[in-house]
Design brief:
By secondary structure, the protein is mainly alpha-helical. The chain contains three helices and no strands. The longest helix is centred in the middle third of the chain and has 18 residues. The protein starts with a helix and ends in a 6-residue tail after the last helix.
């Protein structure tokens, strides 16, 4: 059963039992990614490393010198 099918079953069941509707699949994916990134930055600070912003690190990789093959 796919996530969409399970969501439809859960939505039907919630409507029949007057329960709150379940969140649609994928609604909180971005929040999970942000939380994981924050945790990695937090661990970097605890380990004594610099917690770089992800956009700065990506720009540094893109604009840095190309590596020889």
């Amino acid at each position: 059963m796919t996530a969409i099918e399970q969501y439809l079953v859960d939505t039907y069941r919630a409507s029949r039992q007057d329960a709150p509707m379940p969140p649609p699949p994928g609604r909180d994916d971005l929040a999970v990614v942000r939380a994981a990134r924050g945790y990695v930055q937090f661990r970097a600070v605890l380990d004594g490393r610099a917690a770089h912003h992800p956009w700065r690190a990506a720009l540094r990789r893109l604009l840095g010198r190309p590596r020889p093959c």
